[in-house]
Amino acid sequence: MITTAPDTTRVAALTTGLDRLRRSLHTADDGVPRHLDEPSWEPGFVAEFPQAGVDSLRMAEFDYTTAELHGRAGLCDDLAMAGPVALLTARGAQALRTICRELKPWAVHNDQVVSHRLRNVEAVSPFVRAMVRDPAFLRNASRLVGVPLIPHPLRNAGVQINYYDPPADGAAPAAVKWHLDGMNHVFTMTLSDHAEHTGGGYVYYRGHPRDFDIHREKTTAMGSSHPKVHTAPLQHVGDTVFTRGSRVYHAVTPVSRGDRITLAVSLFCPLLGAQDENRFWHSAPDDGLLRTLGNWRRLRRAVRRPATYCRREGIPIIPLGHPAGPGIAPPK
Ligand SMILES: [Fe+2]
């Protein structure tokens, strides 16, 4: 006799869906003052490119097949990881560190990533807004990855500050769980020196997510002693790694001493907009339904008419046919 097992997967999915809807029914009001006293952005804060000593890994080294890669004819988008690289000069990174430290009181606890986090940094810091729109900054990021990149239209998730501290009550510090991001192109910039904290290593799984999911329990338990788990080279203020966040499993080890701050800058390739991997219900619980709807309208505009979108947003125009080359022109 054939018996039908309860469809627990479907029940779980429905529960998650209802929970996400419930958590989305708030108006995003971060309460961050809009006129913080901060240093001004200077074009001279952009580091010189190219740089020596930048290691890179392609998607094939994470067991991805050619058919799974992002990209299109004439535009291969297959960089998996790269770093360490400096997107800012030492002076620029120090200015950014000061700003991010001052924004810490407004960061909110996030139980998904076990840290405090401030989203939509572009909206509260003119410095950061100018940085991610600086033609040289975007040109260097684009050259590193090999595709043209602009600030991500999902602005709340686009630039975030992550703060990591040991628990104040003396409890055992928690790790940031293993996860994939919604974003394809993520630049993680450390704004702490490694001597300022114990733990807080950015670890990643050098293999396919399918493989990770099969061996999740063992891999998570072994952590950095697992042969496929590696630590990204973030050592000094300003050190940056690129990660294909949506395709490379990553986590952060517990911080047991000191504090650690990172700025996560997600960029967007307007020529491959339809391949963006964000999902509406991933960000709605964080940002509220109304703001998420606005962000998604912006994303649709960027996908459908990238040149018009860039012009309206004051983002440097990337001429078609010259991806990632020196041809990113300043805004008119
Ligand atoms: Fe992440």
Automatic annotation (TrEMBL):
<dbReference type="GO" id="GO:0046872">
    <property type="term" value="F:metal ion binding"/>
</dbReference>
<dbReference type="InterPro" id="IPR005123">
    <property type="entry name" value="Oxoglu/Fe-dep_dioxygenase_dom"/>
</dbReference>
<dbReference type="GO" id="GO:0016491">
    <property type="term" value="F:oxidoreductase activity"/>
</dbReference>
<keyword id="KW-0479">Metal-binding</keyword>
<keyword id="KW-0560">Oxidoreductase</keyword>
<protein>
    <submittedName>
        <fullName>2OG-Fe(II) oxygenase</fullName>
    </submittedName>
</protein>
<keyword id="KW-0408">Iron</keyword>
<comment type="similarity">
    <text>Belongs to the iron/ascorbate-dependent oxidoreductase family.</text>
</comment>
<feature type="domain" description="Fe2OG dioxygenase">
    <location>
        <begin position="155"/>
        <end position="270"/>
    </location>
</feature>
